[in-house]
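Hey, resending since the last one bounced:
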Amino acid sequence: MSSSSARPAAEHLDVLVVGAGISGIGAARYLKTELPGKSFAILEARPASGGTWDLFRYPGIRSDSDLHTFGYAFKPWRDRQSLADAPRILAYLRQTAAENGIEEHIRYHHKVLGASWSTGEARWTVEVERADTGERTTLTCGWLFSAGGYYRYDEGFTPHFEGRDRFHGPVVHPQHWPEDLDHAGKRVVVIGSGATAVTLVPAMAGTAAHVTMLQRTPTYVVPVPRSDLVANALKKCLGARRGYALTRRKNIAQQRLIWRFCQRFPKAARRLIRWVNTRQLPAGYPVDVHFNPPYDPWDQRLCAVPDGDLFRTIREGRASVVTDRIATFTERGLLLESGRELAADVIVTATGLNVQAFGGIRLTVDGREVKLPDTLAYKGMMLSGVPNFAFAIGYTNSSWTLKIGLLCEHFCRLLAHMDAHGHTVCRPEPADPGMATRPFLDFGAGYVRRAVDTLPRQGDRMPWLTSMDYRDDVRLLRSGSVADPELRFSRATVGEEAAGRPVG
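The structure tokens again:
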């Protein structure tokens, strides 16, 4: 074949980051500052950055983690709101991208379909589809960094509801909120009891005739101040950067203390939360019916409500909670298993997410497909047997971004270590293939339980344990060495596979 008719070589980058949400923007900033010589791009399937905070448009959407820990360590959160709404968070993320020159690295409408690793070439070949045109192309990279979160962006989870088609009004999932939905003066039923439901109820109650939260199982709901008075005072006295840093340390310690208290003294934690709920609700309210989960605190994530807004709408009679099961949808609402009928003009199915690891990207290594349940998570950021692949999964018991920052720091130190020693391939391999394992996300939430068999697993010892403790991760990811006997480095040349060798 003549040179004029040969296929052009695919564009090659040192690192490809998949996803331009809070994790991807953070990863890009660390790459730019810690490894300025590395070439990279962010591939984003959607037409805008921001991930979750651009995708979800339902009323009242906000973070249930304080932004002093949910925000980046390197960029102070300057807003007075600590539990902030989505527009403020989105503005913060896009400002971060603009200030750090990241926007020019984002390629929108680029959906990653699959990636194949060649040990001989020490590179990934990544298949990309242009979401706007359907055109397909390929890129190659030395490292693939998955920052796409843990759920499907194209569909939420909705269980089967008997008779759903009979209902005459709109049935809406929060992940696909229609811009023209008008609920003013209407009776709304929100099905669910998680973070989305407890956000929607007070937000819609402002204009709806009445909002009912219909739950099958209660959730722990805790009022939290929308604004952190201590944080605002520290920023005023010490300046934005120092005040933010001190608030961040305070809140990290506070989160850890609450979680450890709930784990060590679950009965006491349950009693304390019940006492708080009783004080927030009207006298004689059946707290043990509607706010008494059958599990211990932090077996699932606690739901934070800013300034107790959910409880306030219940006190004012604008919202109510019903604990029951749905027998069937009817033309005018819902028939419950107890025989009670709930009239509704609008029904919202706040029934959760569909968990999807790494955006559903199909991975192959030297021609063999990677089956995620057969892999183990190394330091909560890489997969056994999968070279030059890293991912960003944050905390389930604390602010997501706290772990993302540590992972990105460690990732940059790992790449610098490889450059310093002339390595091009890095592959985690457990020394004991028969090591006992457990689910990667050891968490009781329904969306996790539904997907647990499709996810990687974790081991019973470091570095194969996935830590959910910030202090432990500081020691492991920030202070600990990147070299490890179970992390095998090698140098590969085109057409020749180099034998892996442990580096201690």
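Residues 115 and 126 are 4 Å apart (CA to CA).

Sorry for the duplicate.
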